[in-house]
TrEMBL record, chain A:
Probable transporter of a GTP-driven Fe(2+) uptake system. Residues 21-194 form the FeoB-type G domain. It comes from Botrimarina colliarenosi. Pfam families: FeoB_C, FeoB_N, Gate. Belongs to the TRAFAC class TrmE-Era-EngA-EngB-Septin-like GTPase superfamily. FeoB GTPase (TC 9.A.8) family. This is Ferrous iron transport protein B. Mg(2+) binds at N39, T42, G43. GTP binds at residues 28-35, 53-57, 80-83, 145-148.
From TrEMBL, chain B:
Keywords: Iron. SUPFAM superfamilies: C-terminal domain of transcriptional repressors (SSF50037). Residues 32-101 form the Ferrous iron transporter FeoA-like domain. The lineage of its organism: Bacteria, Pseudomonadati, Planctomycetota, Planctomycetia, Pirellulales. It comes from the Bacteria. It holds the Pfam family FeoA. Gene3D superfamilies: 2.30.30.90. This is FeoA domain protein. One of its GO terms (molecular function) is transition metal ion binding.
Length: 655, 102
């Protein structure tokens, strides 16, 4: 270790500066179980970060202390590089992974050592990358993952021979059972302690293929190493997968299986998530009441209870759904099924110019656009990914359900059949609009050939609950961090708009609900609603609906409670009373406000309008620019307005 | 008829279309495009035509000179066994892989 530079007398254990610590890169094929192994090697001490100057994420964390030397003071940073097949990058993720590995990515330290994760059941596919990575000339270990599975399948590995052919130490591990993790930790510590750590010279960056060979020779080499070191039933690892795939990748069977899987996914989300959602709702209601009880009546109480607690609660209530979606998608991806879903959907998605991989994000958007937009990272092509992000919020997310319920109940109070059809129609409209918008974007702004599919179909395996949970917590936390602050600010702004200027208490009716109604009418939000009402008049909206549209700018479901207040029912007015009040409301000339045409127009507007600030924040983050978020807001607003206008005018004309 | 029109359309839009001519020459040398294979058939890769991102990805995934490929499924998309595991590729790419008899 380095000589102690500080001349302190006491034997203190120093925490070295981050720059002084060794960095070890974890390299491997996309399906080698790299992230799972990373989680084992770091325990809980890891976080997600972007590679500097990119939106490409990775996990980094401190390597567990070795059991033999638990008091080691110099931590080793482990970096989980994006999975890749070769150092000849074919995607932005691979490109960044390569440049970080080579030490030529500005702002990222060059790794001092490399751990190559190799799937023991699939040496031929994994070893070519190992060969390339070894060519970089850094201290390297090969971690032979899934070796427990190889044992169970009756594959016999000659580690000594493998190690001598590869040219570096080979450690048997299983990320699933934790077997061999301790010896790998010890080996990595030993590797990082090699003195001096080899420094990568500048010339190595320029030299992209030091070994002077292409794929063919690496594959030949991998095949011969496999033949040398592995004996047993070579077909065993893929036998189960092959038989499952006869159905799951079948032209029709695959589509049916996919429909079943997705149906089960949504049933789980919508049935299981309601329990924690109700809990969170109740919790925030309780928090509001409690805080309200402590504070005297006044603006501060109103700000905390209605603005902060109400606003944050309104966002967090969707968190169970978001988490559950993240969790189930992580399980599906880990199991290997998502690659099949992309395969069977590719044929259909190509028609709108998107790859099959775009389908799962678009389907997820029916629960919530936020996890959907975050899961577009699987799409290789940047244009395809942008298009998917842009159209995802058109699909009917669960926050639209309260609005649909309200409008449909108003349209068809006594005709369940027609109500169900209208409800389904709203979903269909969202789907058609999203596919149509994708089609248009792919032919105009983000022009590009639909890229042919090339995807590995890994062997199926039992997914790791632990890894999926870790990933869910990570992604949910990112969402709360990113959207949370913005939501808080917007909640406060909207609260202020709906609260000020205050109406003189002397002018307020004594009835609470009526007082709230008068207060909102006179507030900025009420005035804005009245002012812009002429804009929404061609859509058939009266000023109250216009206030609802304004107030639901940041979160669409708010419209229900706004209308409830505006119709004098208080914030939690029950659904039936609200519907009664809306149905009986009349214009100045005595005609009803909510005619069939108005209801349809309102429905169409809410299907197509953006009205979700957290989604906009996530779009900005994923695209790296507010421009795309603004484009999303812009085109969806124009589309919503135009479609609602046509709906209202046509429906009126027909009636 | 509709089907044929559609196929032509796909070829016309296919970025690999200019390589159809070399493919014809290749046939004279005992090579054939993978698209000629049926389900269950095998062949050894001679080369992958084209210099697109997809052809690079095909090579990275093992569809590269010298490899044995087995066709597990045809249609849209194709499924191949190569380098110890399966890969799925769009139908149009099957024509860009030249094989010889295994």
């Amino acid at each position: 270790m380095e000589a102690d530079k500080s001349s302190v007398d006491l034997p203190v254990i120093e925490r070295p500066l981050p720059g002084g610590a060794a960095t070890v890169a974890l390299v491997g094929n996309p399906n080698a179980g790299k992230t799972s192994l990373f989680n084992r090697l770091t325990g809980q001490r890891a976080h997600t970060a972007n590679f500097s100057g990119t939106t490409i994420e990775h996990r980094r964390g401190v390597l567990k202390p070795a059991p033999a030397a638990p008091l080691r003071t110099e931590p080793i940073t482990l970096v989980d590089l994006p999975g890749m097949y070769s150092l000849e990058a074919t995607s932005p993720e691979e490109e960044v992974a390569c440049s970080v590995l080579r030490g030529c990515h500005a702002g990222e330290p060059a790794p001092d050592a490399v751990v190559i994760v190799v799937d023991a059941t699939n040496l031929e596919r994994n070893l070519p990358l190992a060969r390339e990575a070894l060519g970089l000339g850094k201290p390297t270990i090969v971690a032979l993952n899934m070796s427990d599975l190889a044992d169970r399948l009756g594959l016999k590995l000659d580690l000594a021979r493998l190690s001598s052919r590869v040219g570096c130490p080979v450690v048997r591990v299983s990320a699933r059972t934790g077997e061999g993790i301790d010896s790998l930790v010890a080996a990595v510590h030993a590797l990082a302690d090699q003195k001096p750590l080899p420094q990568l010279d500048a010339a190595a960056c320029a030299c992209t293929s030091c070994n002077g060979c292409g794929y063919a020779s690496r594959f030949d080499w991998a095949e011969s190493v496999r033949a040398d070191s592995l004996t047993g039933d070579l077909g065993a690892p893929s036998r189960l997968t092959d038989s499952l795939d006869t159905v799951l990748t079948h032209r029709f069977g695959g589509l049916v299986a996919f429909a079943v899987v997705m149906f089960a996914l949504f049933m789980t989300i919508f049935s299981v998530a309601t329990v924690p959602m109700d809990l969170i709702d109740a919790l925030f209601g309780w928090a509001g009441d409690t805080v309200g009880g402590w504070l005297p009546d006044g603006d501060l109480k109103s700000l905390l209870v209605d603005g902060v607690i109400g606003g944050v609660g309104g966002m967090l209530v969707f968190l169970p759904q978001i988490c559950l979606l993240f969790f189930l998608l992580a399980l599906l991806e880990d199991s290997g099924y998502l690659a099949r879903a992309a395969l069977v959907m590719d044929r259909l998605m190509q028609r709108v110019g998107l790859p099959g991989k775009a389908f799962v994000p678009m389907l997820s958007a029916h629960a919530c656009a936020i996890p959907a937009i975050m899961s577009t990272r699987v799409i290789d092509d940047r244009r395809d990914r942008l298009v998917t992000i842009l159209v995802a919020p058109l699909l009917s997310c669960s926050a639209r359900v309260p609005v649909y319920v309200m409008v449909v109940a108003m349209l068809f109070p006594d005709r369940p059949g027609a109500a169900a059809a209208t409800f389904a129609g709203a979903y269909a409209l969202g789907i058609v609009a999203a596919l149509g918008a994708a089609f248009v974007f792919k032919r105009t702004l983000l022009k590009g050939e639909s890229r042919p599919l090339v995807i590995e179909l890994p062997n199926y395996r039992a997914p790791s609950i632990r890894d999926a949970l870790l990933r869910t917590v990570d992604q949910a936390w990112q969402f709360v961090q990113n959207a949370g602050t913005t939501i808080l600010v917007i909640s406060i702004v909207l609260w202020a708009l709906a609260t000020y200027p205050k109406t003189d208490p002397a002018d307020l009716p004594t009835d609470d609900a009526l007082a709230a109604q008068t207060q909102l009418e006179n507030s900025f939000a009420g005035r804005i609603g009245r002012t812009i009402q002429p804009v929404f008049a061609p859509l058939g909206f009266d000023w109250k609906t216009s206030v609802g549209v304004v107030s639901s700018f940041a979160a669409r479901e708010v419209v229900v409670s706004t209308l409830s207040i505006l119709y004098g029912l208080g914030e939690d007015g029950d659904q039936e009373k609200l519907l009664g009040a809306m149905q009986s409301s009349q214009r100045a000339d005595g005609t009803p406000v909510f005619t069939t045409a108005t209801c349809l127009s309102l429905l169409v507007f809410y299907v197509l309008a953006m009205q979700c600030l957290p989604t906009q924040v996530v779009t900005r983050r994923e695209t790296g620019s507010w421009n795309w978020a603004l484009l999303q807001l812009g085109y969806m607003s124009v589309l919503a307005y135009g479609a609602a206008l046509v709906t209202y005018q046509v429906a009126n004309w027909l009636a | 008829m509709r089907f044929i029109l559609k196929t032509n359309e796909m070829v016309a839009r296919n970025p690999l279309a200019p390589v159809v001519q070399p493919a014809v020459e290749a046939a004279l040398a005992g090579e054939f495009a993978m698209s000629a294979l049926r389900r269950g058939a095998r062949g050894r890769v001679v080369r992958v035509l084209g210099e697109t991102a997809e052809s690079a990805r095909l090579r990275a995934l093992g569809v590269c000179e010298g490899r044995l490929v087995e066709v597990l499924r045809t249609g849209d998309a194709w499924v191949l066994r190569v380098l110890g595991s399966r890969i799925g590729i769009s139908r149009e790419l099957a024509a860009s892989v030249l094989l010889t008899a295994a």
